[in-house]
Amino acid sequence: MINLSLKSLNQGLVKKKFSSLELTQFFLNRVEKHNSDINAFISIDAEKSLTQAKHADALIQSGQNSLLTGIPVAQKDIFCSAGWRTTCGSLMLDNFISPYDATVIQKFNEVGAVNLGKTNMDEFAMGSSNETSYYGSVKNPWDLSLVPGGSSGGSAAAIAARLAPAATGTDTGGSIRQPASLCGFTGLKPTYGLVSRFGMIAFASSLDQAGPMAPSAEDCAALLNVMAGYDEKDSTSINHEKEDYLANLDEPIKGLRIGVPKEFFEKGLDGSVQKVIEAALMSYKKMGAELVDISLPNTHLAIPVYYVIAPAEASSNLSRYDGVRYGYRAKEYDDLMEMYFKTRQEGFGEEVKRRILIGTYVLSAGYYDAYYLKAQKIRKLISDDFKKAFEKCDVIMGPSAPSVAFKANEKKSDPLAMYLQDIYTISTNLAGLPGMSIPAGMIENLPVGLQLIGNYFKESQMLNIAHAFQKETDWHTRMPDGVS
Ligand code: GLN
User: Fold this and answer.
1) Which of 116, 182, 375, 478 could be joined to 308 by an S-S link, Cβ 3.0–4.6 Å?
2) Distance between CA 214 and CA 231 in Å, rounded?
3) Left (φ > 0), alpha (ψ -120 to 50) or beta: where does 444 sit?
4) What are phi and psi of 75, to 5 degrees?
């Protein structure tokens, strides 16, 4: 069961080899067995999941099924899900039971997919190692002493350990692609605006984007088919024509021009990771693609720009957690002001407070021009770099992360070292472009991800390019020792 693609699981359900109830119970059993080691899930509600599974079985029985009907999907705990506790990895929302569904959740419900549970994540999606969660750190199934990456680390670990056949994540600066790289599966951050942000708890609204996480590109295409689509409830949702992301997976890739940015291979990149990426590029060349040297000259500014813009937006978004509307409220206080202070002091973790402080600072009257406005100008330059690059190539490739998974606690007390994890992913969020990570090799039994960056709305082409690689290689089917 754990080796089956979403398409095969769908076939199994349709041909009555197993029911959704059995499939869901199978994965719930796996979660129950392994979650104490991995800590991938914050909330599990077997009764709710099994009720959905029964409903899915009825849909299949009546012939109203689609590819995801009856398939259990692990949902990052950033998506509001009606009746489910939705914590965003924070004490601030520890007691929050969502009264409504995020559009992403609603779309999965509409096709009869099963919510398998809510996955662990860095607090408010701020982090690259899943060590900032109020619910404890997540372990990397490839080696439990290592981090799974973040912030979608719970979803990532769930896929790697095959606790779920598919999952969702969100990516503000790399949180789908970096954990996909560190845990050895496929993850896609779509073009900004392709997937609705309605009901997805906001971190940095101009950067946040939800996307699929699953072993293969084909699985991700099936998930994106459900997730993508215009939503009038999200003012930044884009009315892009509906596509079938499974339709072009087998197109030939001969003649494809792959841009290789020299800035992605400079100091900071681990030498063994570089070798894996170069070997993957050579495989593409063998398949008939052409490698083109390109330059993204402002790459080195992506992290500083992000760490002005993202905290600025976060400081505004997180102002709603004041102990009044919902969520945590301090127990003891003398007056309203003290209630606000204590609630935010106690309810937020260290990294979140750091971001709120930075954000408030860069937006303050005296510093707005010097930091925030300047960052916005450089953001435009970064977008322009991509625009120029795409005149010479169809897709850009490079590493997803500078290293393989690192030790727990290694970078926890050094925020700047942690921030560097996203050096290759952040610029695509700043430009709003789609990015993807696919398993491309191993170093000492740890996975390495190859990053694909496409032009706006080129998800279909990127999935095709990724699928071509996955037909030639088996990296995406590898599982950690002991997972069976
Ligand atoms: N690691 C980055 C951060 O901490 C990105 C997180 C994300 O993409 N949600 O902000």
Assistant:
1) 375
2) 24
3) left
4) -110, 130
Map tokens 């978004």 to a residue: 317
Atom number of ligand 1 nearest to Cα 351: 4
Containing 244, the helix (H) or strand (E) segment is none
> Across residues 99-119, what is the average pLDDT?
98
How far apart CA 92 and CA 88 sit, in angstroms, is 9
The predicted pLDDT at position 253 comes to: 96
**Residue 476 CB partners (closer than 8 Å, separation 6+):** 184, 185, 186, 215, 216, 217, 438, 439, 470
Q: Return the biggest CA–CA distance within the chain.
A: 71
Q: Within 6 Å (CB) of ligand 1, which residues are found?
A: 125-128, 151, 171-175, 203, 310, 422
Tell me how far CA of residue 44 lies from CA of 54, 79, 357, 431, in angstroms. Answer: 17, 14, 34, 36
- The span from the CA of 311 to the CA of 306, in Å, is 8
Mutating to test ligand 1, I would choose from 175, 181, 308 the residue with most ligand atoms within 8 A of its C-beta, which is: 175
Q: In the CATH scheme, what is the homologous superfamily, with its name and number, of domain 6-252?
A: Amidase signature (AS) domain (3.90.1300.10)
- pLDDT, tens digit, for every residue of 6-39? 999 999 999 999 999 999 999 999 999 999 999 9
Exposure string for 153-191, b = 16+ CB within 10 A, e = fewer:
bbbbbbbbbbbbbbbbbbbbbbbbbbbbbbbbbbbbbbb
Joined together, the tokens standing for residue 45 give 């509600």
- Per the listing, tokens 């896929």 go with 159
Q: CA-CA distance, 57 to 19, in Å (whole number)?
A: 6
Tokens of 290: 């052409």
CA of 204 to the centre of ligand 1 (A): 9
What single letter denotes the amino acid at residue 3? N
Q: How far apart are CA 262 and CA 293, in angstroms?
A: 7
Q: What is the pTM of this model?
A: 0.98
